[in-house]
Amino acid sequence: MKNRYIMFFVCLLVCFLPMLGGFAISADSLEKWYAALTKPAFTPPGWLFGPMWTVLYILLSVVLYKLVRADIEHSLRKLLLTYFGWQLFLNFLWTPVFFGFHAIFLALCVIVLMAALCVDFIRQAWRAKPVLAYLMMPYTLWLCYAGYLNCGIYILN
C-alpha cells in the first residue's frame, strides 16, 4: 500500500516538472510583452491558467500512475510511456519558447506536436486500456484550445 502512494507521489513530481519551464521567463516578459499582444477571441482571463494547469497536471499524474501499473502488453506500455514522456518534455519547452524567446510560431509547432502525440496516445491506449484514453482527453482538448490561442496570437501579431 505504501509503495502505491510513493509511486503516485513520484508521478506527481514528474508531471509537474513542466512548471519548471516557467522559471525561464521573467515577470517582465509576462506583464509587458504578453500583455501588449493582440489576443484572439475567447482568450480566458489570466487567472484561469494557473488553476487549469494544476488540475491538468494532477490528471496527467493519474494517467502516468495508471499507465505504469496497467496490465498491458510491454511493447504498448513502452510506446505509451514514450509518447507521454515526449509530450511532457515538449510541455516543459513550450513556456520558455513562447514567453522567454517570444518565438510564437515555434511555440505553435511545439503545441501542435504535443497535441499530435496525445491524440496518438489516446488512439493507442484505447485498444488496451480505455480509461487511459479517457483520462488523457481533457488535457488533449486543452492543448487544442491552447493551440488555437497560440495560432491566434501568431496571426494577430
Cα(first) to Cα(last) distance is: 52 Å
Proportion in β-strands: under 5%
Shape: globular
Which structural category fits the helices and strands? mainly alpha
Write the H/E string, N to C. Answer: HHHHHH
CA gyration radius, whole angstroms: 16 Å
Overall residue-averaged pLDDT value: 93
Low-confidence stretches: none
Largest sheet: none
Number of strands: 0
| Helix percentage | over 70%
Please describe what this structure looks like.
By secondary structure, the protein is mostly helical. The chain is 80% helix and 0% strand. The chain has 6 helices and no strands. Helix 4 (74-100) packs antiparallel against helix 5. The protein starts with a helix and ends with a helix. 23% of the residues are buried.
Secondary-structure blueprint:
Blueprint: H1 2-16, H2 27-36, H3 49-69, H4 74-100, H5 104-128, H6 130-156
Helix pairs in contact: 1-3, 3-6, 4-5, 5-6
